[in-house]
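Issue: copy button drops trailing tokens. Both records pasted manually instead:
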Amino acid sequence: MLAAPTCVDLIQLYVSPDWRRRGIGRALVTRFDPRPEAQGPCAFEAAVPEGNLPMQLLLRSVGYKAVRVLRGFHGDQDAYLMQLERE
């Protein structure tokens, strides 16, 4: 089976520290879907720095999986390429 093509790259998501732990990041990640309705399955991807454990955990909790390590992606820091396939 072929992997679904990438249709969304999550580049940056930031929630102000005063507003964290209120479900805002989760709502943004789970409700965002810019695809036209007629488009078929595709993959949402995010490159998450290895030191950003809160984002890794958030994405894992909504179904993303780490599929590859991107060496040196953020300067001297590696990142995990995380992916979610959507129908």
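Record 2 (pasted manually too):
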Amino acid sequence: MNRIQRKPIRFLLASLALLLVAGCGESVYGPSGAQDPGVLLVTLTQGGGEDLAWTSDGTELVYAVAGELRAVSASTHTVRRLDTGPSVVIQALSRAGARIYFASSLSAPGPNDPNSLIGRVNPIAGSAEILLTSRSGPDQHVIVSADERFLATNGVLYDLGTGGQINLPVGTAFGFSPDGSQLLYYQAQNGLLIGAPSLISTADGSSSEPLQSPSGSFHYGHRWDGNSLQLLDFSRDDEALRLFEIDAVTGVHRALAEFGSNPFFPAILPVATWSLDGRTLAIWIEQGSGSSRRSNLYVIRSGSAPVVVASVITGLDTGVGFPVFSPSGNSVAYPYYLDGGGTSLYMKSGI
């Protein structure tokens, strides 16, 4: 199985120039034989890079590696370490406003000491701020509302404004509505950590009636039309593979794109994200077979035909991660998982 992964809180010019980067565990090689992967920003020989976040000005890409937060410049490709405070090991990250929020395990805790924390840091200016600690262990998700009032992690909904908290049923948080009043939450079901979707009120923790449940696994591929939740899904037959979205409440479908089909390919990968304004979708689709198999990153805009902006070879030991749009929506970055355990971070501009 291809390596398609993202930690639950967890493209690209044609040439692969050798890029000089700084920092422990980073080198300058790229995926052998890749076709148009984009600009190589940095390679992480120790792995990592599953969660990516742009700085608010779009000049740097933030990632976690070797338990640290680092930022790589989109223009010079230089790497710097971000301040996250003492004795922390970064597990996951997310951006809201100008700040990066992170989940961390604490080094060598005592038997009664907290073993995890949630913090935040402004990567452009400022030091780390610890928001809360607990004994529950770090979750792989850190989800923060756009106004930075609410935070969901490890089965708890926190109100950072009042200091209140609401314990949620076992499950996974995936995003807040633009006004912060609702949390998209997949409650555990039938032994699965990610079950059916629901909307949880941030005011009192109450859940909505069951929502439409897509057949695919595009848990990150949702967007908000105002405060109306749209979920990504697909269907296929002998003639075509069709990508569409569903209004989570009404069930109304809207077609997004259609791809020609044959008995084996293309194969859609559950690795898709929308731009911050909800107007552009980036999604990986695998096409070809054997040595000619490629994962192509398509950009889809309403009223326009899908455009391939990146293409990489994928196989049993290589794969792609979630694309992340820059704040302007003009660039996208993604991790490419290398044979042997490393990760290369690539960027495509001018999309």
